[in-house]
Amino acid sequence: MPRGSLSTYKKKRDFQRTPEPAGKVKRSEGDAPLRYVVHEHHASRLHYDLRLEMAGVLKSFAVPKGPSMNPEDKRMAVQTEDHPIEYLEFTGTIGDGNYGAGEMVIWDQGFYEPVEGYDPETGIEGGKLHIVLAGKRLQGEFILVKARFGGSADGRNWLLFKKRDEYAIAGWQPE
Ligand code: MN
């Protein structure tokens, strides 16, 4: 599997001016549990960024309405540039004039694993990822599937939703 790439991430940022980590693509850590984070990003528009550790980077998705524990809620998730692993711990305020200016707060964090046992990178490349999250706010099975609008699946639009399981919460609202 190809490693992720941080070239777009680095191109968009001036590390003299942003508190965000520069970072490097990491080597695989073998059997270490895979981590994830959801940032609440107070950018020009509030949104949530789901970031999954794989391929030596964090595969990142901007979710305007945020993830939901209610299986009825199908959330649009737009794939954004790979972020460095160090971003799992990042909180802070990105100053005006920088890419993504605004406060970045950790909304949820924990571990995840693919349900079918395949490598998660295979899922991302194939346009469907079925994972189990073990976090503070998010738990249980989630599906991330590439969206087809107008018959096209070549964009960066995905859908994120909770799968029905014992962790699903009907009528869930974020605190
Ligand atoms: Mn963001």
Percent range for β-strand residues:
35-45%
**Bound compounds:** manganese (II) ion
Largest sheet: 8 strands, antiparallel, barrel
- The geometry reads as globular
Strand order of the largest sheet: 1-2-3-4-9-8-7-6
Kindly name the structural category. Answer: mainly beta
Q: What is the number of strand segments?
A: 9
Secondary-structure element sequence? HEEEEEEHEEE
Radius of gyration: 16 Å
Report mean pLDDT, rounded to a whole number: 92
H/I helix tally: 2
Taking pLDDT < 50 over at least 5 consecutive residues as the criterion, the unreliable ranges are: none
Measured between the Cα atoms of the first and last residue, the distance is 38 Å
Helix content: under 10%
Summarize the structure in words.
It is a single chain. The chain is mostly beta strands. The chain contains 2 helices and 9 strands; from the N terminus they run αββββββαβββ. The chain has helices at residues 7-11, 120-126; strands at residues 34-42, 46-54, 57-63, 75-83, 92-94, 102-114, 128-135, 139-146, 157-162. The chain has an 8-stranded antiparallel beta barrel. The model has no long low-confidence stretch (mean pLDDT 92). Manganese (II) ion (MN) binds next to β2.
SSE inventory with pairings:
Elements: H1 7-11, E1 34-42, E2 46-54, E3 57-63, E4 75-83, E5 92-94, E6 102-114, H2 120-126, E7 128-135, E8 139-146, E9 157-162
Antiparallel strand pairs: 1-2, 1-6, 2-3, 3-4, 4-9, 5-6, 6-7, 7-8, 8-9
The structure holds manganese (II) ion.
Residues 41, 43, 47, 49, 62, 100 line the site of manganese (II) ion.
